[in-house]
Design brief:
The protein starts with 17 loop residues before the first strand and ends with a helix. The strands form five sheets. The chain has a four-stranded mixed β-sheet. Strands 7-12-8-11 form a four-stranded mixed β-sheet. Helices cover 32% and strands 15% of the residues. The chain has 14 helices and 14 strands. By secondary structure, it is of the alpha/beta class. The chain has one domain. Helix 10 packs across helix 11. 45% of the residues are buried.
Length: 387
């Protein structure tokens, strides 16, 4: 079922590119590639954190001073020129590798996470992600990221117990690095450039988790969305995490009914007349996914069943609200308003621990559409020499 008002998701993406060494080591190059303004601050976490808050750079938590040596060392362990432009932010500011590395150093992110962070920034900079709206809105929305491929284990990105928060791992610093980039490069400042009414803990630490591919009965998310096998990241907008508990159901249809009805409520952004279309991201527990897959042959079947329950009766809305939805063609012939235009707009992935039957609801901002990007990887030195 399609509605002509619905903007189609942008499913195109580029394959991860092969990188070659471009650094001159921690000592730097003959030509200084680093162009950011230097600020004299005592090289201590306490002093720099205090200065960062005063200068508007920090998030209030302790920051590692991004000294010349630390930034160069981070760059030397990767294969990017610091002046390489990765994306333009909503205010047209340039997000270069140098800017990304500075914020990654401050957050304490490991050097080996650079390509993941770059792919994440590329994803949210796609026009269909609508980063301007995500950053500026009155909603508490922020970008979340789902990672596929071996890089999950290499960077210890959680996809099992506690994957949406609470696991002790340096992957937390990766999410924080992206949040600092949103503040320091994209310019997201509450009450100034963003009118977020309440905000969210996710606007501090971010949200980055993996898909538990090994426990999934379906192809990995990046492969299903963009045909990308291996390391990839999917960026989506979310209002925060919503837990859905169902310890009573015993079959696929019952589980999906509970999930669909739980994510559907009248005040969700996806039901706002100001949003003509939306997506919704849902994490399915591995135990539940196994049960579902025994009854439903394909992921498309799962989306169809779930979508049929992810709707609310039009009479739940006040008349003015309902009139606006009807004018948009969003009240279907069955008298219901669906959370997304079509079943395909439910972004499903497998994650979470094995201790109980839960699902993870991640409500969208509405007009922000998920984007999937491959994660580049360096070519081994011996392969470069052979060429």
């Amino acid at each position: 079922m399609s509605i002509h008002l619905i903007k189609p998701s942008n499913r195109t993406t580029t394959a991860p590119k092969t990188l070659v060494s471009r650094d001159c080591g921690p000592a730097g190059c003959e030509v200084d590639w680093l162009t950011s303004k230097r600020v004299e601050v005592e090289d201590s976490i306490e002093a720099f954190t205090e200065a960062s808050v005063e200068l508007g750079w920090g998030d209030g938590l302790p920051l590692i001073p991004p000294t010349d040596a630390r930034v160069r060392t981070f760059l030397s362990e990767n294969d990017r020129y610091p002046d390489e432009l990765i994306a333009r932010m909503p205010d047209n500011s340039e997000c270069t590798v140098e800017k990304i590395v500075i914020n990654a150093v401050m957050a304490g992110a490991p050097a080996e996470s650079l390509e993941l962070i770059i792919a994440a920034i590329e994803a949210i900079s796609e026009p269909d992600f609508e980063l301007y709206g995500v950053n500026a809105t009155t909603a508490p929305v922020y970008p979340g990221f789902i990672v596929n491929g071996p890089i999950r284990d290499a960077l210890r990105i959680p996809y099992s117990y506690g994957c949406a928060g609470g696991v002790s791992t340096r992957a937390n610093a990766i999410g924080r690095a992206i949040r600092l980039i949103m503040r320091n490069v994209a310019g997201q400042v509450a009450g100034v450039t963003t009118q977020t009414t309440f905000g969210s803990p996710g606007r501090l630490g971010g949200l980055i988790l993996g898909e538990w591919e090994e426990k999934s009965p379906w192809a990995p998310l990046a492969e299903r969305r963009a045909g990308l096998a291996g390391n990839a990241v999917t960026a989506f907008s979310t209002m925060g995490t919503m837990n859905i508990l169902d310890t009573t159901s015993s079959g696929a249809l019952a589980f999906l009914e509970m999930i669909g009805k739980s994510v559907s409520y009248a005040g969700a952004n996806c039901y706002s007349p100001s949003m003509e279309y939306s997506e919704m991201t849902i994490g399915i527990n591995p135990i539940c996914a196994e049960i579902i897959a025994k009854e439903l042959a394909t992921i498309e079947d799962v989306q169809e069943v779930l979508w049929n329950h992810a709707a609310v009766p039009a009479e739940w809305f006040q008349k003015l609200h309902r009139d606006q939805l009807e004018a948009q063609g969003r009240v279907r012939s069955d008298g219901r308003v669906y959370a997304t235009p079509e079943p395909k707009d439910l972004v499903l992935f497998v994650c979470g621990g094995l201790g109980g039957l839960h699902a993870l609801g991640l409500h969208s901002f509405g007009s922000s559409l998920a984007q999937t990007k491959g994660i580049a990887q360096a070519e081994p030195a011996e392969a470069q020499a052979a060429e």
